[in-house]
Design goal:
heterodimer, A: seven-stranded mixed beta sheet, four-stranded antiparallel beta sheet, B: 114 residues, mainly beta, six-stranded mixed beta sheet, five-stranded antiparallel beta sheet
């Protein structure tokens, strides 16, 4: 079945540590996105990529980094500069960036601080 | 101007009743309005979407009502069932605009009591 796979489902970060969240899609979508979800704040855009080897900052990119070396993969690194990383992280993809095609979401990674 | 305001924050409905969730926006350039359904521990899934050239769209028990002049849209769930208990997000997209971002509301936690 086609879809988006996020791993791990749960992740714990120590102080000063960088952690990487995986996002893989087999939908052959060009565009991929990372969102952060906090209670009562909806989904906020961290980074997005419209095509391989290209990505742009979203609304809350500080403390995060991404890469897009392959069409099917869009990993997110939460760096030690992100002082409040505890949240539910969601990866999504569409055929074309920010079109009226529906965004397909993975099942998320919940990141907590040790 | 980029915000989408969603209400209520939480909603309790009896089985068989009508659930109504409201959203309002300011940016008249928004031209695509999807609703997403999210179950605990899962990513959001597209439920139903509408363009502003129609005032209503119905899919099964789910209906979007759209009031362009008031810049408001709402989700109605008829004959609500316990399986509808989830968090619902409205969103808006400026398709083809300079910003090209999907803006999410803050979510409504719906509980349908048996």
């Amino acid at each position: 079945d086609g879809g988006i796979t996020q791993s791990p489902k749960y992740l714990f970060r120590k102080e000063g540590q960088n952690v990487t969240l995986s996002c893989e899609q087999n939908l052959n979508h060009d565009a991929m996105y990372w969102y952060r979800q906090d209670p009562g704040q909806g989904l906020r855009l961290i980074y997005y990529s419209q095509i391989v080897n290209d990505f742009q900052k979203g609304d809350i990119a500080e403390g995060y980094s991404v890469s897009r070396e392959k069409k099917e993969s869009f990993p997110l690194t939460v760096t030690s500069a992100q002082k409040n990383p505890t949240a539910f992280y969601l990866c999504a993809s569409t055929d074309r960036a920010f079109s009226n095609q529906p965004q397909h979401f993975g099942d998320g990674t919940r990141l907590s601080i040790l | 101007q980029q915000q989408v305001k969603q209400s209520p924050q939480s909603l309790i409905v009896q089985k068989g009743g009508i659930s109504i969730i409201n959203c309002a926006y300011e940016n008249t350039a928004f031209d695509y309005f999807p609703w997403y359904q999210q179950f605990p521990g899962k990513g959001p899934a597209l439920l139903i979407a509408i363009r502003p050239d129609v005032s209503e769209k119905k899919e099964g028990r789910f209906t979007i009502s759209f009031n362009k002049s008031a810049k408001q849209f709402s989700l109605h769930i008829m004959d609500s069932q316990p399986g509808d208990s989830a968090t619902y997000f409205c969103a808006a997209l400026d398709y083809g605009g300079a910003t090209n971002k999907l803006i999410f509301g803050t979510g409504t936690l719906l509980a349908v009591q048996p």
